[in-house]
TrEMBL record:
Residues 1-18 form the signal peptide. Keywords: Signal. This is Lipoprotein. It comes from the Bacteria. The lineage of its organism: Bacteria, Pseudomonadati, Pseudomonadota, Alphaproteobacteria, Hyphomicrobiales.
Amino acid sequence: MLGLSVLGLSLLAAGCQAGPSGPGSMSAPGKSAALKTMEHIALAVQSCWFASRDPAFKPYRMADELNSFSGRPRILLVPARNPEARPLLVVQAEGDPAKVDAFGPLMGDKLGNRAAADLRRWTAGSKACA
């Protein structure tokens, strides 16, 4: 009887030490390439466009949607005075390696070329502002 108790405790201890197994495990999966890329871009946008008080981006506000269940984390630029309005710029990524897309009315105005250049640089891994 003692042998079974020791065996049961050994199995119980081994079960507690084992890592997650299978798709039903409750542990958080690793970050996707798309999420890592969008986190990097979001930090650069915040730092270079907003925290630096860049006058070109003063009329806008960033809203992030990085915890996307669609597999496409994204950030939005919305009017600063009307954050509930339709986004003027959407930047999203998907896949591995991450493919970044940017679209919206802001891409068609004078600020669009600068935004595109910044996003290309940040997508490549740079942290540098313009």
